[in-house]
Amino acid sequence: MIPSVSWIRPLAAPYLRGYRARAEHRGSLRGYWFEAPRSRAGARRGFFVGYLFAPDDFTFLEPQPPECLVFAYVAPAGSALHRRLVRAPESLLRKTFAYIRCLTHRPPRFAFFEDQLPALIRHRSMRDWPAGKFEHFSRNFFIETCAWLVRSGVVRKLLTESPAKIATRRPSREPSGLRRCSG
Predict the structure, then answer these.
(1) Where are the beta strands (DSSP E) in 25-169?
(2) What is the largest CA-CA distance in the chain?
(3) Does residue 71 form part of some domain?
(4) What are phi and psi of 159, to 5 degrees?
(5) 103 by DSSP, 3-state: which?
(6) Residue 181's Cα: distance from chain center in Å?
(7) What is the per-residue pLDDT across 108-150, written as a single tens digit (0 to 9) for each?
């Protein structure tokens, strides 16, 4: 049984300032989308914080529902914005993944998918948690994961990226503020 999600918005909002929260209660997800202002082309970018209770659209994760998950997304997949922020070799989310993966040494670690809605994701099955602790443990998971995303700079950078800005910018060796991992 998945706990109530009403507390997720006030928990995640301080980490995801500038993003508009929208509840998700359909399909296999329960939680909140935190979306940056849309581009003129209708592309969407932001984060999802919540639960996966059925593997339907997420079989590529090999999930063991119920799961708590946090992911960054750029939609629609294949759009110009998605190609620039996710698929490109020097993209913001690809480089953030490389950086943030070095920081998280214990499971669950972040994963990167260039061809899925969740581009940068961290998820954890709740099957081995006592049902009475679902909300407590998932709060800890969400806080820790959102803090990693803020620390990496991706929360700020994804919010300030615009299709016009991305199209005219030259690729850099590393996004500002990101260090390469050693080892």
Answers:
(1) 29-35, 44-52, 67-75, 111-112, 118-125
(2) 51
(3) no
(4) -70, -40
(5) helix
(6) 21
(7) 999 999 999 999 999 999 999 999 999 999 999 999 999 999 9
Q: How many domains does the chain have?
A: 1
**Cα 177 from Cα 174, distance rounded (Å):** 8
Q: Are 22 and 49 in contact (CB under 8 A)?
A: no
Range of the structural domain that residue 162 is part of: 8-54+92-166
Q: Which residues pair with 35 in a beta bridge?
A: 20, 46
Q: 127 lies in a domain? A: yes
In a domain, 124, yes or no: yes
**Assigned domain for 84 exists:** no
**pLDDT classification of 183: cutoffs 50, 70, 90:** very low
pTM of the complete model: 0.88
Pull the structure tokens for residue 29.
């997800």
How wide is the angle at C-alpha 133 spanned by C-alphas 49 and 69, nearest 5°? 20
